[in-house]
Design a protein that fits this description.
Layout (H helix, E strand, L loop, with lengths): L2 H28 L9 E4 L6 E6 L4 H4 L9 H10 L1 E7 L5 H11 L5 E4 L7 H7 L7 H7 L1 H9 L1 H6 L13 E2 L8 E6 H7 L7 H15 L32 E4 L2 E4 L4 H15 L12 H10 L4 E5 H15 L5 E3 L25 E4 L6 H9 L4 H9 L6 E4 L2 E4 L1 H4 L7 H8 L9 E2 L1 H7 L3 H11 L3 H4 L8 H27 L6 H11 L2 H17 L1
Parallel strand pairs: 2-3, 2-4, 5-14
Antiparallel strand pairs: 1-3, 4-11, 6-9, 6-10, 7-8, 12-13
């Protein structure tokens, strides 16, 4: 089979999957559906406790150790301390969106649902009005004193976690320090650079030289790899490589104007670069299907030598694995690429203090919303803060001079678990949840000097000048924006792949932009701008 046919097959497989995902939500909203047979329900027997149900996907680090939520010590301890017995409903890995669509359509909702509620079609206000989740204003006021106190002391956070109509809808995950907001960026095999006499690349041209050397002199199969799941180019959406051209793959601010990167000339230049790199075998051939397991395999097997990923789940996880086989192996950070030497990167990964990820909503079907609220509020209490960030005292941490210090069980695990894996067993500091993340977790989690160096390097961008704030929108705006962006992002992802893989010529970009405009992207930009103006006036 020719390369063109292989590339076309990759695109067709991905597009079919995307369309099926989109259709699932539309069809499910029309008529009830049965819950997926793949969804696991596991009930723990513990007489005397209140019984509530909890829907949540399992974090990848935790899943690599124990596949079921109920077997993880943190969740057992959380139930023990709050006096609540939980029935866990766990969707299969990487299928949370599809399973949530099925769940909502079924009408058989659990008490609590941990999900990216900001990204649900129509937005959280629509989920409230459609009768899926509770408006939590009264619930928080009456039954969540710890969260209520935190929000009263942090009005900027309070503004972010409410809808435009003023509705609270989740018990949120909040990053409690600016240092926690950057955790991802370019990672490269520094030992290979040293071996080849090359410097850490900073420009697109230098990256080309390095990747070519990895390919030709080291025989590396896929010099650059990155996530292509849940959608193509997912791994670079924070600004890696594409940001060098002055845009990002999404909405951003430019001189106070809202712009959409994939229709700008800079995106065409980015596609031209990646098209060239792909044709020369410098980018992973499986560009549309790389998930976290594949990424781990690529980087630990030597199939790839560069990527964009996390300081913890990337550098911290891969370094000890590879170093066991190769004593001199060294994963290290690189700056976000720019076009001109010495320029400061315009974009890079930098999360909001509140992102919408890891928030827990209470369903309208819950017969004991008060108990659910009290359990969720525990994470914002002093005691809960310690459990969620550090785990169980005497097991996962000890207090030393007033500082919660992780034990060797976490940092030098006897079963050879990486710190990210060990942490995921005893707390949730490394992967979201209903609590405020503590910077003291990060100070210990990054045990390697290159991890700590990475945060400094990756933070050195101008992203705060260009990123849109976390902007609540009205129900109608969310519904209209979601409808527009489903079509727009399908076009963007499909055409991006076609151009990079060489299925379509680069000149197809002009026609593709016309299709984006025909899909009402200008209206989407207007919605973003209107919501932004209101946000600044609040």
């Amino acid at each position: 089979m020719s390369k063109r046919h292989i590339s076309t097959s990759i695109i067709l497989m991905w597009v079919i999957a995307l369309l099926l995902s989109a259709c699932t939500f539309e069809n499910n909203s029309a008529k009830p559906a049965e819950p997926s047979s793949n969804t696991r329900k596991v009930e723990q027997s513990d007489q005397g406790k209140k019984a509530l149900s909890y829907w949540s996907e399992l974090n990848g680090n935790a899943a690599s150790v124990k596949p079921n939520i109920q077997d993880i010590p943190f969740f057992q301890e959380w139930q023990k301390r709050t006096g609540v017995r939980l029935t866990f409903i766990q969707p299969p890995a990487n299928q949370a969106k599809e399973e949530m669509n099925v769940l909502l359509a079924s009408g058989d909702l659990p008490d609590m649902m941990e999900y990216e509620w900001d990204n649900i079609p129509g937005g959280p206000e629509k989920a409230i009005n459609d009768g899926y989740i509770l408006r939590l204003n009264d619930v928080i006021d009456k039954h969540a004193p710890n969260l209520k106190k935190y929000l009263s002391e942090h009005p900027e956070i309070d503004k972010q976690i409410k809808t435009d109509a003023g509705s609270y809808y989740v018990f949120p995950f909040i990053r409690g320090d600016d240092l926690l907001r950057t955790y991802q960026g370019p990672i490269i095999r520094q030992d290979w650079l040293q071996e080849l006499g090359l410097q850490t690349p900073t420009t697109i041209e230098e990256w080309y030289t390095v990747l070519k050397a990895f390919k030709e002199k080291k025989g590396v199969a896929a010099p650059l790899t990155f996530l292509g799941v849940p959608n193509p180019l997912f791994g670079i959406e924070s600004g890696g490589f594409v940001g060098a051209y002055g845009i990002k793959k999404g909405f951003y601010l430019d001189n106070s104007q809202v712009k959409f990167g994939p229709m700008e000339e800079g995106y065409k230049q980015f596609l031209a670069t990646f098209r060239k790199w792909y044709a020369e075998g410098l980018i992973d051939r499986n560009i549309a299907t790389v998930d976290t397991k594949t990424l781990d395999s690529n980087m630990t097997s030597g199939r790839s030598g560069a990527t964009i990923w996390n300081a913890g789940a990337g550098i911290g996880k891969w370094q000890p694995i590879v170093q066991e086989k190769e004593k001199n192996a060294l994963f290290g950070p690189a700056p976000y690429p720019v076009l001109n030497k010495g320029d400061k990167p315009k974009f890079g990964q930098r999360s909001y203090a509140y992102m919408g990820t890891g928030g827990v909503a209470i369903s309208t079907k819950s017969k004991n919303a008060e108990a659910a609220a009290k359990m969720l509020d525990y994470g914002y209490s002093d005691e809960g803060h310690m459990l969620f960030n550090f785990g169980i005292e005497g097991i996962s941490y000890n207090m030393k001079g007033g500082y919660p210090t992780y034990t060797d069980l976490i940092l030098r695990n006897p079963d050879k678990l990486a710190p990210s894996q060990a942490l995921s067993m005893y707390n949730r500091a490394s992967y979201f949840g209903p609590f405020v993340q503590d910077v003291r977790y990060l100070e210990q989690y990054y045990t390697l000097p290159q991890q700590r160096n990475a945060i400094q390097i990756w933070s050195n961008t101008d992203v705060d000048r260009y990123v849109l704030p976390q902007i609540p929108k009205t129900e109608l705006e969310n519904a209209e924006l979601s409808s527009i962006m489903i079509d727009v992002m399908t076009l963007v992802d499909e055409m991006s792949l076609k151009i990079i893989l060489g299925v379509e010529p680069l000149d197809a970009f002009k026609n593709y932009v016309s299709k984006i405009k025909a899909s009402k992207i200008d209206r989407a930009i207007q919605i973003q701008k209107s919501a932004l103006d209101r946000y600044y006036k609040r």
